[in-house]
Amino acid sequence: MDNKKRIIVLGAGISGLSVAWRLHELGFQTIICESQGHIGGLAGTIRADEGKYCLDFGPHFFITQKQEIVERITDLLADDVVSFERSAQLHIQGRFLDYPLSAKNVLLNFSPGDSIASVFTFVWAQLKRIAQKILGMHEQSPHFGEWAAANFGSHLAKIFFRPYTEGFWKLACERLSPEILPTSTRLNFMKSLKMMLVRRVSGKARSLTERELVLPLRYPTRGYGLIAEAIAERVLNQGGIIHLNSRVTQLRSVAGGYVVTVLQNGQVVKMEADHVISTIPIPNLVKMISPGVSSNVQASADRLGYLGLIVLYVVTSKRDLLDTSYIYYLGRPYHRLAEMDKFCDTLSPPGENMLAVEFSCHSGDKLWKMSEQELLELSLPHLDQDGIISGEDITKSFVVRAAHAYPIRYYGFREHLDNVLQFIREQPNLDVLGRTGEYRYIDSDQCMERAIALAERIAKAS
Fold this sequence. Notes:
25% strand, 20 strands, 17 helices, seven-stranded mixed sheet, five-stranded parallel sheet, 3 domains, globular, FAD/NAD(P)-binding domain, alpha/beta
């Protein structure tokens, strides 16, 4: 197939690169416009100090059930990937627990009072759910706090789900939908109960939590961004074009397609496209569409937001900083620590190790504006107190930031998202794709799977 249709892709993250890859295989021509100076988006790797240090936007594993995706990654990376079993912990009330939380943790690692209260309220919550189902009682749409209490009991919601959620999202649970968690939309009641009690999964594992428990984990030897870089190389070899430092400022609808205005290295460039695929934040896309959208659609787009991410990398010669690959924290200024040598020991020079210190924040808030030194000063007292690392152990540090790391599914967000998506569906030859573009909390393998499916739908319709 040799299709002369030109497709412009907004964003060179894993979704944009994957859809371009598949489109070229199907005979289309693509141009990718990326506003940043590097590819990969949230799945990218910054190569600092002349490539000596590989800095991910938070450490990721690659996990998938889809054989096609496994084959593609194997073909891309060959031997440049390691596999291992998952290892993670939660730090709650001065105790280290398994992640995800297990019944054994609740019974043996919490204080006796918390253990008894957690088990009692968990059982009571499940009995209430069963009774409501038998009586045919209609369940009102809950906010996250209500959902956590109904699924895991009021006490566990109080001592874990609520404080961790509010600490991570920097928002009250009353303002959040249960859909902020991948598990909340994929785990039904019986699977939730089974995971809480026995931490085993049968059947197809759909949520991130389930998949991490039962599937092999893969990590590229030179950072997670190696996947995106390998896909980009395929796209370029197939004749695709990737423009970095190229921010799209307008999509103007014309007969048969779009005129795309791009600010490219300080110069305004106009490109013609028969089809546009956007992986950029939905509110940004809505604002650049011309003719302009209705006030109703614009108001809905303004109600959709994203949580930002800062990762402070501290370099040290110390080994075995953590007893596990990564630890989630309550009551710390950061929400997660990860020891990068436990992912792969080729991410920094021989004899060195890196600790990734992750902070969630809102773009533009006080934390977002902190300098590298201020972030280090904020973290060190806790890292030192917990016996992980002290100031004299650190030889250098780096910071990476992502303003749109997680879509915030506010309570009541669905109406606004559906309103915006309906408007986008009404635009000819315009699609949205990926975690940021679709406003879906999905992972890299799911992004690739959806990108391939979209490319094949476009080919079928052509």
